[in-house]
Every structure is written in C-alpha cells, then in structure tokens.
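quick one
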Amino acid sequence: MRIAALGFHHETNTFQSVKTDYDAFVNYEFLRGAEIAEQHATANSTLSGYFQGAIKYEFELVPLLFTFTGPTGTITKNAFDRITAEMIALLEEKGPWDGVLLAQHGAAVSENFPDMDGEVANLVRGIVGSNVPVVMTLDLHSNITQKQVTNTDAIVAFRTNPHLDPVERAIEASDILIKTIKGEIKPVQRLVQVPMIINIVKQPTSFGPMLDIVNDVNEVIKKPGVLSASCGQGFPYADVEHMGVSFLVVTDDDIEMADHLANWLAKRAWNRRSDLQNDSTSMEDSITRAMNAPTTGSPTVIMDVGDNVGGGGTADSTHLLAEAIKQGLKGERSLLMSLFDSTAVQTCIDSGVGSTVSIKVGAGTDQLHGEPIEVTGYVRAITDGRFEEPTPIHGGHRFFDYGPSVALITKEGYMLVLHTMRGIGNMTRQQYYSIGIDPQHYKVVICKGTVSPRAAYEPIAREIIMSNTPGVTSADMSSFSYKHRRKPLYPFEEETKFD
Ligand SMILES: [Zn+2]
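structure w/ zinc ion:
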C-alpha cells in the first residue's frame, strides 16, 4: 500500500499585524521528500507517528511535503496558492495512492480561505477522489469545521495540552486509514460545534475542567464501535466564523451513535462553561507573589499569557520586565527571560563577550507589548541560537533555531537571553542550557506562553502563575475586537443558549 503524507501546518492569530508569507514558511520549515524523514523520523511529531505507523501497519509511506511556521498572522493568498499548488502537483505526479495522511493544525486562516485546513482537505479530495481514504490529524487547538469533516474519512485531534501525544494520535490515524483501505471498517464522523470558547488559561489538560473533558472523550473512545473521538478546544485568536469548541466522534458505520456521543460530549462541556473562563492573576500581583516566594532552589514561573509565542505572541513583550523593575526585584539570578530583539543582539555581538553595553531591549514589533526598556548589562555569552531537544515536549519538535543569540546580565541581576528570531516560545529548557544557563537556579522565570512551556517548566517550578498581561494573546478576551466570530458565543454573550 502506498500512502502519501502531506502537511501545511499553521496556527493563525488573525490579530497579529505580521502577515505570514511564503518566505515565513521557507525560512522556518519547508521540507520535501527525504528531508521530511531526516527531520521527523526520530522526532516526537505527527510525521514521526506516520513513519512509526508505516512500520507497525506495514505500508509504504511516501512523504511529499511538510511545511510549518510559528503562530503568526493571516497567511497571504500568495503563500496559500503556491504551497497548495505544489502539494497538488506532487499528489498528481507521484500517484496513484491507496490513501492519504494529512498533518494539519485546524486553526489556519489564509486571506482567501478562513477555513484553510478545510480547503486543503477539499483540494486533496479533489485530486484523489472519493474512493481513496483521507485521514487528517489536527492540533487540540483546532477550530473544526464541517468542511474538514466532509472532505476526510476521519479526523483525529491531539488529546493533551501541552501536546505530548502527536505520535500516538498519528499512529491511531494510520490504523484507521489502513483498516479503511482493507475494507475492515467504514468510518463515519459527526461534528458538534458548541457556542462557547475555552479561555487559553483553562486549556491545560492535566488538571481542572479540561481534564474532565478529556476524561469524557476517553470514556467515549472505549465504547465498542467508536474508532476515535476528539475535542477541538478552539483557537480563540483566530477571528473566523467557526472559532470555538467542538466535538467529533468517528464510529464504524454508525452515524446515529456518532451523533449521540458527540452531543453527549458537547452538553457535558457546555455545563462546565463558567469554569472554563479567564481567572488569571494581574500583572502586578504576579510579580509581587513571585518576589515574596521563598528562595528554595526552584523558580516561580510566571506565564506571560499576553505574549504567548505558541499562540502568535511577538516574543518581545516587556510588560512583566517593566513591572519587575518597577517593584524593585533585584539580586543575582533574580530573573530569567528571553526576548526577540535583533538590533540589541547585533549591538552585543559588535561589543563582544565580556563587554558592558547600555541598550534598549524588546517591544519592537507593535504598540501592544510594552515599551523598549533601557538596560545596562554584561555580555556573558553569544551563540548561533541552534539547539536540539531529544525528549518529548509540546508538539514533538526536535531541532530549534532562534538565530544568533546573546546572554546579557543586567545591573539588576536579571539574565536576559536575546534572540534574532521569534522562535516558538519557551517550550524547552535546552534554549537556556545551550547558552550556559540553568533556569532552575533563578528566583523568577518569565515564560512567554500559557501552556506550551509547562512540559519544560513544571518539573522545576515551585509554582506556575498565569499572568493576565496585555498583548496579542491576552486572556482578557474583551480586549479583542472580533469582526467574524459567530454570535451568540459564550462568554461574550452571557445569555447564549445551547440545546
Ligand atoms: Zn496547539
């Protein structure tokens, strides 16, 4: 059996001013054919799971194209058209196929298609026809649509956040695909969209109401005849009509059971809606609490929710840095954080290791993420910004490139790690180990994220504080002006009904 694998993977924050063009994909990750195996066969990603599925279920996996870039603004029409044209050409040239495995995100928005993932599935279906099964994996943050469902035989979404299960889900998707090709099963799927959002600070799956939701999904999966069940948590920073929570159940040729179970999951989540909203700590209280924490050899980790790089943050917010200076936090190893600032890095590189510089750092992208902060500091180290994380972390990435990077110790005793690329947040401690820093030895660590840094920082944190900072990924949803979301939608419209 010959199975094509393709992925055009993006989580789109439509509130971000920086559009995502073709070069953004090329400069981050744009892989074809054998390059995909080189980067993913030993990673912990969806593609890695497809390679493992090929071994387990004995099929020939033909990786065609996989591209991905960090969460940024709306994908340009040009990027969408060029990338999908190449995907389609490869599918046509290298076929025929027994099946297709797609590795999509589910919250991608292009200028021409608000439901970009649905359109990718539609284009693929158009090439291979209705007799060739197509199975698609999605991120847990997907805004799942009927178009995605109509153009696939089955969809399987991640079930953990941080996303530690892409490999398992991809193997599950491979299993469904192969059994479908062999005629052993006939998947049918039912989607129920719930008129609500889950606030970003309530999206971790290891505790709280989201754990209850995942437990419900796992309960459904155990039932005979159920092939898969997924919750799309939704990605609230994509201003599109289909933004929100959804449930999808895939059964073996029993649409009534799929319908019943998807509705059961949806109702149970709806009843928990008030517990799934923003309860994060104010910026001022976050710093005060962290400053007053005992110095025990494990840091207080403050999540900079408004600059969640994994959700489209700019990686250069200075709001919490300014607040720490204002409240007088100081002392050796009192604070550790990273900032995207190419100009500051260049100044430090020009001055050299061992020099002292006075520079402005951060807040270079837009007006939402604070003011550039004047610091005087000692240039401790300079690296090329490349590092590797061999253990499973959020999303299963292995190879990272943050561009030329500098470790700068300020006169307050803060360690600022400055990068020339935005990267994808603070999701691995290797980011700091690779420049000679052990985050465990700091009093306060600021992470630009909400959930994705947890796999890296929960093991060393004495406490994790969700900080209600301003920014393009703020937990305060009233700070965004939506034009396209559906109405009513809870909690925006308190009186929203769901029957
Ligand atoms: Zn996600």
